[in-house]
Design brief:
This protein is α+β, with helices and mostly antiparallel strands and 541 residues long. It is 33% helix and 25% strand. It is built from 17 helices and 28 strands. Helix 2 packs across helix 3, helix 2 crosses helix 5 and helix 7 crosses helix 13. It starts with a strand and ends with a strand. Bound molecules: 1-O-phosphono-alpha-D-glucopyranose and zinc ion.
């Protein structure tokens, strides 16, 4: 088979955001659209020629067609070997692990994460670099520049490819290896966690439910939780991957995981619940009567890490994204280890992980992980919690409440404001930026602003700089508000407002009432009513 050179013209909307390129399926279906973007990636990552790449996705609509195109394009661009998850499936963390095990020079995860799927839904591509982490901002910018100037791409002619049978075939000069998507990942989990202890827990009266939301993690949960750990099959919900995720958003939050949440409201609730998103990198942890806030989850895992085999020797350091609650900062201070504050987006943890400066990291957006891969990892977080429960005599709720008593509690909420017109979002941020310097010293409803800035980050490892990563407003009593625009939406704009208030007493109760006052202040400071007519958030998580 000979590579063809196909003439093309640039599209102007191929800028990858916080987590790759994410667009409506119909956008990806335009002739040359996918090919252009992929060719731009291959042009900017010449190290993939002659090397190994890893390919898989979350199983959403268009996954198979996209993988077919990607393999033909990779072969025409001189890739030596492509490892493909059987059926085109690979979770984001499993892909990162495969890349590391096989010293792959590149990786492609075809996913729009927790966004809806199906013909009317979203599709996306994350491209990863050697080491198994997401492309840097610089690389992403280079790919965008390339996509704006592209004139041709190289590809093998259309051909059906069988990716449903484990085995090897050749495509042009490239070897395609179809591999089990789960096995290596399951083995990694077995190395990190005390499976014997969790098996005993599973055999006891302890009950749990894991909701895969019809995303990619069903087969992973089946292999690990059911087959290896012995939880009954009924512990899994929505465990078959579906191209449209059953019509819902594969997003592990109380709203989209409402079937799971419903089990936890009445009597007879399971002892523990968890959910993961479409591509398996996010997690939500629930216990009877409460949902563990992701910032708290990171803090609890960090504080108790040495009780888990994989982290027995302690943590080199921890990191969190800027908007994430500062609960983990207090743990780091108590453990006397470094704590880094990075911009939003998992790729900013990559250098710190590679350099061995951090062991655990997390984001408020239901993302937690460690140095075992270079992506966030949903099932890993679930196993970490199960290991902590199995290792002691405390339930998830007790672990959390004890943590609050010891370190105090960081009440946290994210308020999202959806704006149909993209420009409105830019207006809000621009106006806030202009007023930011004058905020310090001002008082809002009894709270004094002690510091306000536009967050800029200098990577401690390579010195690269990232400006305009969100605005922070800090108050004298330990309250904080952060503002930024989402980088993952496919239409309009979403303003994210992050609210945090520290309570040294570690009181119980819902975050909502504790943050009401701060929510009103956040609208006043950003003049949401005046600029965009907004007086309440579209969604609170
Ligand atoms: C969102 C989250 C961010 C996460 C990203 C990819 O990005 O806020 O923490 O890394 O999805 O999962 P955003 O839409 O806010 O740019
Ligand atoms: Zn995801």
């Amino acid at each position: 088979m000979h590579a063809q050179v196909v003439a093309t013209r640039p599209f102007d909307d191929q800028k990858a955001g916080t987590a790759g390129l994410r667009k409506r399926v119909s956008v990806f279906q335009q002739p040359h659209y996918l090919e252009n973007f992929l060719q731009a990636v291959f042009d900017c990552m010449p190290e993939m020629a002659g090397a190994t790449i890893v390919v898989g996705g979350d199983g959403r609509y268009f996954n198979r067609q996209a993988i077919n195109t990607l393999l033909r394009l990779a072969a025409a661009n001189g890739v030596g070997r492509a490892l493909v998850g059987r059926g085109g499936l690979l979770s984001t963390p499993a892909s990162s692990n495969l890349m590391r095990l096989n010293e792959a020079a590149g990786g492609f995860v075809l996913t729009a994460s927790h966004n809806p799927g199906g013909p009317e839904g979203d599709f996306g591509i994350k491209f990863n670099v050697a080491g198994g982490g997401q492309a840097s901002e610089q690389l992403t910018n280079a790919v965008y520049a390339k996509s704006r100037a592209i004139r041709e791409y190289r590809i093998l002619p259309p051909a059906p490819l069988n990716i449903d049978r484990i085995g090897t075939f050749t495509l042009g000069g490239m070897t395609v290896e179809v591999v089990d998507p789960v096995e290596d990942y399951a083995q990694l989990m077995e190395q990190l966690f005390d499976f014997d202890a969790i098996r005993q827990l599973a055999a006891s009266s302890f009950t749990m439910r894991y909701d895969a939301l019809h995303g990619v993690t069903g087969p992973y949960a089946e292999a690990v939780l059911v087959r290896r750990l012995g939880f009954p099959k009924e512990s899994l919900m929505h465990a078959d991957p579906l191209p449209d995720f059953g019509g819902r958003h594969p997003d592990p939050n109380p709203h989209d995981a409402r079937d799971l949440m419903a089990l936890f409201t009445g009597r007879g609730a399971p002892d523990f619940g968890a959910a993961s998103d479409g591509d398996g990198d996010r997690n939500m942890i629930v216990a009877p009567g409460l949902m563990v806030s992701p910032g708290d989850s990171l803090a609890v895992l960090a504080a108790n890490a040495t009780r888990v085999p994989g982290y027995r020797d302690g943590l080199a350091g921890v990191a969190r994204s800027m908007p994430t609650s500062r609960a983990v900062d207090r743990v780091a201070a108590a453990l006397d280890i470094p704590c880094f504050e990075t911009p939003t987006g998992w790729r900013f943890f990559f250098n710190l992980l590679e350099a061995g400066r951090i062991t655990l990291c997390g984001e408020e957006s239901f993302g937690t992980s460690s140095s075992h891969v270079r992506e966030k990892d949903g099932l890993w977080a679930v196993l970490f919690w199960l290991n902590l429960i199995a290792a002691g005599s405390q339930s998830a709720g007790e672990l959390l409440r004890e943590h609050w008593r010891r370190y105090g509690r960081n009440f946290f909420q994210r308020h999202d404001y959806y704006l149909e017109r993209r420009a409105r979002g830019d207006d809000i941020i621009a106006s806030l930026g202009e007023r930011l310097p004058a905020l310090t010293g001002q008082r809002f409803n009894g709270l004094d602003v002690i510091h306000a800035d536009d967050f800029a980050y200098t990577d401690p490892v390579d010195g690269s700089e990232s400006a305009h990563q969100g605005m922070r407003v800090e108050f004298g009593g330990g309250e904080r508000i952060a503002y930024r625009l989402s980088g993952t939406g496919t239409t309009g704009a979403t303003l994210r407002v992050y609210l945090e208030r520290y309570d040294a007493g570690g009181s119980d109760g819902d975050a909502g009432p504790a943050l009401d006052g701060l929510a009103a202040i956040s609208r006043e400071i950003a003049q949401l009513k005046k600029i965009a007519g907004l007086d309440s958030p579209t969604m609170i998580t």
